[in-house]
Amino acid sequence: MQTTITPKSWAVFLARIILGLIFFAAGFWKVFRLGAVEHARSLFVEPYASSPLPEWSLWFTGVVVPHVELIGGALMLAGWKRFAAAIGLGAVLMLVTFGHLLAEPLYAFDTHVIPRAVLLIVLLAMFEEDSLSPDDWLRRKAG
To answer: Under a CB-based contact definition with an 8 Å cutoff, are residues 134 and 33 in contact?
Structure first.
């Protein structure tokens, strides 16, 4: 089965690569530079200590999020397991949105959450158009 590469294919490819780079870079920095435990302490546990959230959930989430960003970003860049990566990254975006709104109900999302969410929504809405991914190649090969 021959693949047709269209302008939509390129649009999804570019959105996927940009989103992958954003999350991979963030995850890489949080895991290997800052450290996942320090990320949890400084960005989850301390800022939300007075919130109704249990401390264990703050530690768990703060340590897991950087790894999800790193792995999800890498999978997006590779074009492999895109749907699983999209679900993981979408969960991170929902979690970040919840956390920011818990801390500051009128938080401005235009510089952080919205660009990532738009790229992710485009990828999911045009999922079948990503003919430049190994996922699509494997799907076509399977028949």
So the answer is: no
What DSSP assignment string belongs to 60-104? HHHHHHHHHHHHHHHHHHHTSSHHHHHHHHHHHHHHHHHHHHHH-
Give the pLDDT confidence of 48-78 residue by residue, as tens digits: 999 999 999 999 999 999 999 999 999 999 9
Domain locations along the chain: 7-142
Structure tokens at 68: 């999800």
Q: 87 with 96: CB under 8 angstroms?
A: no
106 contact partners, CB below 8 Å, separation of at least 6 = none
- In this structure, what token pair is assigned to residue 49? 């200590």
Distance CA 65, CA 46 (A): 16
